[in-house]
Design goal:
about 190 residues; TIM Barrel; 3 strands
Amino acid sequence: MTVIGFLKHFGLEKDYKLNIEPNHTTLAGHGYEHDVVMAAAFGMLGSIDSNTGSPDLGWDTDQFPMDVKNCTMVMKTVLEMGGLAPGGLNFDCKVRRESTDLEDMFISHVGAMDAFARGLKSAAKVLQEGVLTRLVKERYLSFSSGIGARIAKGTATMEECEDYIMQKGEPKAASGKQEKFETILNHYV
């Protein structure tokens, strides 16, 4: 987000795209797909280093991505933005210290590519069937009309928001249904 803010502040967001390294996302304490989704949301995703790290270690391990669920979420984002061109997936990973055979390097590359291929197939099915898309739309339905739409567009004033709350009372918070989303995603992976 810092880089996106910097580029936007200086009017450079159309001149540069970002290469996202999910391992650095892990180091920052975010989920694997967080920075990929954010860069895509701002139209600035250029390429993805197809590596990951261990949240338990706290250093840059550049491991091969083998988690199909994470790869599914990344590929879902890539599909939603219409592809990843002219960039792509950069396989710049490293095998673990204990993996000393040449075969380990071969298997790790094939395994990571397979994880992304399975992720791509799963993501395509998720988008084709539209279940998660419908649930997200339902979740944020209050932002599609009335004061919610004005808030989403950035046109509602603080005074309008205060008046709305004074007249209508505290809005009932809708459930985030995170477990439902995760269970549905597990169905596709």
